[in-house]
Design a protein that fits this description.
Elements: H1 8-14, H2 24-33, H3 41-45, H4 52-60, H5 64-74, H6 78-84, H7 106-119, E1 134-138, H8 142-153, E2 157-161, H9 170-173, H10 182-193, E3 198-200, H11 211-217, E4 220-223, E5 243-245, H12 246-255, E6 267-271, H13 275-286, E7 291-295, H14 307-315, E8 319-321, E9 324-331, E10 337-348, E11 357-360, E12 366-369, E13 372-375, H15 383-388, E14 393-394, E15 397-398, E16 413-415, H16 430-455
Parallel strand pairs: 1-2, 1-4, 2-3, 4-16, 5-13, 6-7, 6-13, 7-8
Antiparallel strand pairs: 9-10, 10-11, 10-12, 14-15
The structure holds flavin-adenine dinucleotide and iron/sulfur cluster.
């Protein structure tokens, strides 16, 4: 086992944001590179439709408040998105300068403007005049926050029910601090709170208040609870000490006042190859682990992590075991993890020509000596809560009767964010959750205010 010792102070420092923000000179120069396209493709490629040329022009002319307003107007979690969006697949990927030189660094400019607003304690929006209607929002992640912000601007009385102590969902608790410090997401929460939105924290709907009460007591309900825990691997040894759920693991690094010292020098296997797996692996490195490897049953081509996440993990020294599946976790007499038995896989064509199927290669079993195993094979769904609301769903993905409006099988209940992700529906991204939250707010406004004005 590697015993390289890194002081706790140094480890803590390692959780500081990795990417530095732009300096004023850099931001001005970069914004002046923009061609300010008419009907800009970058704006079309942004799920929230931020008027990118407009916010960049405002940076170029020194109007940082105006720039932050343009960004946050279209995207209530625009400060978080500037750090976590896969920009090369979205706005920057669509930049016309890709054909001649390099794309405008839209994410970084967005961060520059919103960081200015955060630093200068700007309040960017006002609540609308009361329209007398009430909405309950379940969950305060990007989807719930975006819905709350837009509804408050339409004059609704909005109450957000949140199971955790702090609002912001995975932006606050799930995406690693060195990419998204929690204070960024908490600033976005404050922008919504100051519109008069009430946040009932530590309140789990379905336990502390029932689904039926919300449907009875409010004019509309928005279900924005995201997804839940990592599923079980279904193999021997999962109960051993040293087996972690990746979501809980990352959350601990974002909330613990003192970082866990027990990872120093340890050998870690992370199971899975999505963004959560990468985050768990890079967190382990920052906790001082001696060796971190990602175990994935398919190949790099099939991994779901963003390219920038993969590159980041490689830079952090994370190793990858492709075409490898865990068979059982091995423990010592005290019940602590000591290894993981794996089997090599091969990918076989499926009869229907769909995604290749990983199949174990008989006799290829081998053991990796590890001190901890972090499970990161996706997230389970909030099926019980969805059923308490009586909503139609497909294996925990809420079924929408009108996807553009987030309308569920109950006309009073709307859904947005990761709770509608799955089975080919939706996208698990902060920016798309925010857009879905906005769309739900517009649908509720149309149904409860506009529709009634028209029929009056
Ligand atoms: C580790 C990790 C890394 C990621 N990295 C990225 C990234 O780099 N870029 C990107 O775009 N996306 C990333 N994602 C995905 C992104 O975080 C999600 O798609 C997004 O947060 C979904 O927003 P949401 O509002 O639907 O759900 P969430 O953010 O999950 O928020 C749901 C909220 O509902 C609350 N809640 C749940 N049940 C109840 C209940 N019964 N009562 C009250 N409240 C409840 C939860 O506590 C939570 O606050 C990542 C996800 C993970 C797990
Ligand atoms: S929100 Fe994301 S996709 Fe949209 S412009 Fe900003 S960084 Fe690009």
């Amino acid at each position: 086992m590697s015993t390289t010792f890194i002081s706790l102070t140094e480890l803590k420092r390692n959780f500081a944001e990795v990417k530095a923000g732009m300096k004023p000179k850099e931001a001005i120069e970069e914004s002046n590179r923009c061609l300010f396209c008419y009907d800009a493709p970058c704006t079309h490629a942004c799920p929230t439709g931020i008027d990118i040329p407009s916010f960049i022009k405002k940076i170029a002319t020194g109007n940082l408040k105006g720039s932050a307003r343009t960004i946050m107007d279209a995207n209530p979690v625009g400060a978080s998105c500037s750090r976590v969006c896969p920009t090369e697949e979205l706005c920057e990927g669509a930049c016309v300068l890709n054909h001649s030189s390099k794309p405008i660094l839209i994410g970084q400019l967005q961060r520059y403007a919103t960081d200015w607003a955060i630093k200068n304690e700007q309040i960017l929006f006002k609540a609308g005049a009361s329209n007398g209607k009430t909405v309950a929002i379940v969950g305060s992640g990007p989807a719930g926050l975006a819905a709350a912000r837009e509804l408050a601007r339409f004059g609704f009385k909005v109450t957000v029910f949140e199971a955790k102590e702090q609002a912001g969902g995975l932006d606050t608790y799930g995406i690693v601090s060195f990419r998204l410090p929690p204070e960024i997401s908490l600033w976005e929460v404050e922008q919504v709170r100051q519109l008069g939105v009430e946040f009932r924290m530590n309140t789990r709907v379905g336990v502390d208040v029932s689904a039926a009460e919300l449907v009875r007591d409010y004019d509309a309900v928005v279900l924005a609870v995201g997804m839940s825990k990592v599923p079980m691997l279904g193999i021997e040894g999962e109960e051993l000490t040293g087996v972690y759920d990746a979501i809980d693991f990352v959350e601990a690094t974002k909330t613990a006042p003192d970082l866990d010292e027990s990872f120093i020098g340890k050998r870690i296997a992370v199971i899975g190859a999505g963004n959560t797996a990468i985050d768990a692996a890079t967190c382990s490195v920052r906790l001082g682990a001696g060796n971190v490897q990602i175990v994935y049953r398919r190949t790099q081509e099939e991994m779901t992590a963003y390219d920038f996440e993969y590159e980041f993990a490689k830079l952090d020294g994370v190793a990858f075991q492709w075409l490898t599946a865990p068979k059982r976790i091995l423990g010592d007499e005290q019940g602590n993890v000591i290894g993981i038995e794996c089997v090599r896989m091969e990918l076989l064509e499926t009869d229907d020509g769909g995604r290749k199927r990983p199949v174990p290669i008989a006799g290829s079993e081998f053991v990796i000596d590890v001190d901890a195993v972090i499970k990161a094979i996706g997230q389970t769904k909030h099926i019980s809560l969805i059923e308490q609301f009586g909503l139609a769903h497909s294996r925990g993905t809420v079924t929408l009767v009108d996807a553009a409006a987030g309308m569920t099988s109950n006309p009073k209940v709307f859904a947005a964010g990761d709770v509608i992700f799955g089975d080919g529906q939706g996208e698990a991204m902060v920016v798309s959750a925010a857009q879905q939250g906005k769309l739900v707010a517009y649908a509720i406004y149309k149904q409860l205010v506009k529709g009634q004005e028209a029929s009056a």
